Amino acid sequence: xxxxxxxxxxxxxxxxxxxxxxxxxxxxxxxxxxxxxxxxxxxxxxxxxxxxxxxxxxxxxxxxxxxxxxxxxxxxxxxxxxxxxxxxxxxxxxxxxxxxxxxxxxxxxxxxxxxxxxxxxxxxxxxxxxxxxxxxxxxxxxxxxxxxxxxxxxxxxxxxxxxxxxxxxxxxxxxxxxxxxxxxxxxxxxxxxxxxxxxxxxxxxxxxxxxxxxxxxxxxxxxxxxxxxxxxxxxxxxxxxxxxxxxxxxxxxxxxxxxxxxxxxxxxxxxxxxxxxxxxxxxxxxxxxxxxxxxxxxxxxxxxxxxxxxxxxxxxxxxxxxxxxxxxxxxxxxxxxxxxxxxx
Length: 344
Known about the structure:
- With 344 residues, the protein is an alpha/beta fold.
- The chain has helices at 3-15, 51-58, 86-92, 112-119, 130-136, 138-146, 177-189, 197-203, 227-230, 261-270, 282-290, 338-341, and strands at residues 28-33, 36-42, 69-74, 97-102, 123-126, 150-157, 162-164, 192-196, 218-222, 242-245, 275-280, 296-301, 310-311, 320-326, 329-335.
- Strands 10-9-8-11-6-12-15-14 form an 8-stranded mixed β-sheet, sandwiched between helices. Strands 2-1-3-4-5 form a 5-stranded mixed β-sheet, sandwiched between helices.
């Protein structure tokens, strides 16, 4: 067994925290003694033990640690937050070797953990399965590097490119029930979910995770003209917490100056939201594509044909990362950033 094997295990462990660790990153840790894993841990939620501490505390015979290697997909922290620095515990336990997937891009961490470990005699190796480690924490890195949330676009379309017929009753579905359950799983993994006000007025969505056990994302509605708040109808969103996104400059004419995608993401960043999944409508999705402010697209293509209706968003599909089948539906995944989509 080699470094790649143990780092892959760190990634599997880290992913268990997806949807629960915000604003913290996803981190998994494995401790190896004489080619045998003696402890594992992962960060379960913000405020709980970090992965390194979780794994170290599970080692019954602490004397083994002075002759062990600690694997972790992200640089150990060296600052006090809700928990003490992981570097202090690693050094206290006299762990001689630490192998790291990638650096932590948060400025309060970046490089400091590695520097402290090295200065105190710990052997440090960096960059094992680096692209996979970056990919796992793409939400966290996008937030800290680009000062905006990680943007996921999601929609379903027929084989002839329509997202809905011209006229339809609420509850019209293109995709298979299993695909819809997958979408609810995705929702549980993101901090927020956003739609345009037309989607709320026409479809009355719940934007929750009722088909999957998990946390509901914060619901966001782009409503520059306050159509939703002025409506007398009892919408599903009124039964839960949601936020309307409006122009920051209230004096602007809302008809002539619709809210801009960058301004939307600035507002989400100010709310410390690291990720958003945008589920409609077509105009909203297209606006993020046209301004190049998106990171990932997940498109369900069904076997249905409509022949006439609302056309789906136009997006370049030359860089498709993968295709997968969910019963009769085809799921297309596209990453805009080639670094994220790299495979080790």
